[in-house]
Amino acid sequence: MNSRPVPVAVEGLPDWGRCAVMGVVNVTPDSFSDGGHWFDPTAAVKRGVDLVADGADLVDVGGESTRPGAFRVDEAEELRRVLPVVRGLAAEGVLVSVDTMRAGVARRAVEAGAVLVNDVSGGLADPAMMPSVAACGVPFVLMHWRGFSHDMDSRAGYGDVVTEVVAELRDRVDAAVAAGIPAKRLVIDPGLGFAKEARHDLALVAGLPALRALGRPVLVAGSRKRFLGHALTDARGNRSPARDRDAATAALSAIAAHQGAWAVRVHEASATADAVRVAHALAQGREAAARRTDR
Ligand code: PMM
User: Tell me: the pLDDT tens digits for 262-281?
Assistant: First the structure.
């Protein structure tokens, strides 16, 4: 199932030698799973530090909700939310990623200590994003995206979702390289839940090897998302709410790591930190067995 158990490293970041754990801190009043919890900068920094204590390798800080139906915040407000938290976490020695679609926010966050830019629009929302990331010299996450959150659910039309997402991500990788970002600094992400129905998300998780065939590390960010709620529908047809999806998230982390994901992005780190280590031990065991058979 998995041709290369150890995920490829990303230039500019440590090589953890296993699937990395990216913890999430949303400094927003309205994100679907943790909105309002860490809106205060001091609480947000403490949350990031706690995520690292729980096993996160890096922490993704976002100031704009991208939940389905969400409308945008302006740049000044996004900066007001994000910068103190990036600065505070960097001062604590945490590796910080900034989750933004704006070049100006990305640049200011890197100046404040962020080491990775995570753009859910894959550079499509702001034409200045790719040149700006190239100039900053940091790695860049390109997520599959078909439009802003307020109407993205209407864009979930696919023939073969895996083939189409791979093709659209390939275009984004080419655009990033043309803008001056070295391929070794690029991470791709299928964008689970973004212009996708539950069945599309499941197909993309199952199709991880096809995404990996693009030759870039893959970030899987399914934490607490709708498709997990669908998978956990009870006998009466009730879907589990977002706050009850952490065990399912850890199960997804194990599957993603087993399939060679470079990193998984999660709201709770401890169970996922165990999951990626189990997947790593399994991969090592399999390699050792293969070496013995070769002898
Ligand atoms: N999903 C959310 C936010 N940022 N970033 C990446 N790279 N991939 C994602 O799927 C993604 C993301 C959705 O909201 P959340 O922060 O509450 O998970």
Answer: 999 999 999 999 999 999 99
Give just the sign of the alpha carbon dihedral 34, 36, 39, 43. negative
How far, in Å, CA of 295 to CA of 292, rounded?
A: 5
Element (H, E) at 18: none
Burial of 155 per CB tally in 10 Å (0-12, 13-18, 19+): middle
Pocket of ligand 1 (CB under 6 A): 24, 26, 31-33, 62, 66, 99, 118, 120, 141, 143, 189, 191-192, 219, 221, 223, 265
The per-residue pLDDT for range 3-47, each reduced to its tens digit, is 444 457 899 999 999 999 999 999 998 767 666 788 899 999 999
Task: Find the angle CA(279)-CA(57)-CA(113) to the nearest 5 degrees.
Answer: 155
SS3 189: strand
What confidence tens digit (pLDDT) does each residue in 202-249 have?
999 999 999 999 999 999 999 999 999 999 999 999 998 999 999 999
Model confidence pTM above 0.85:
yes
The Cα–Cα gap between 147 and 194 comes to 9
Structural domains present in the chain:
20-294 (3.20.20.20)
Higher-scoring residue by pLDDT: 126, 68: 126
Based on its alpha-carbon atoms, the radius of gyration of the chain, rounded to whole angstroms, reads 18
- Tell me how long the chain is: 295
- Return the active site residues: 225, 265
CA pair distance 171, 161, nearest whole angstrom: 15
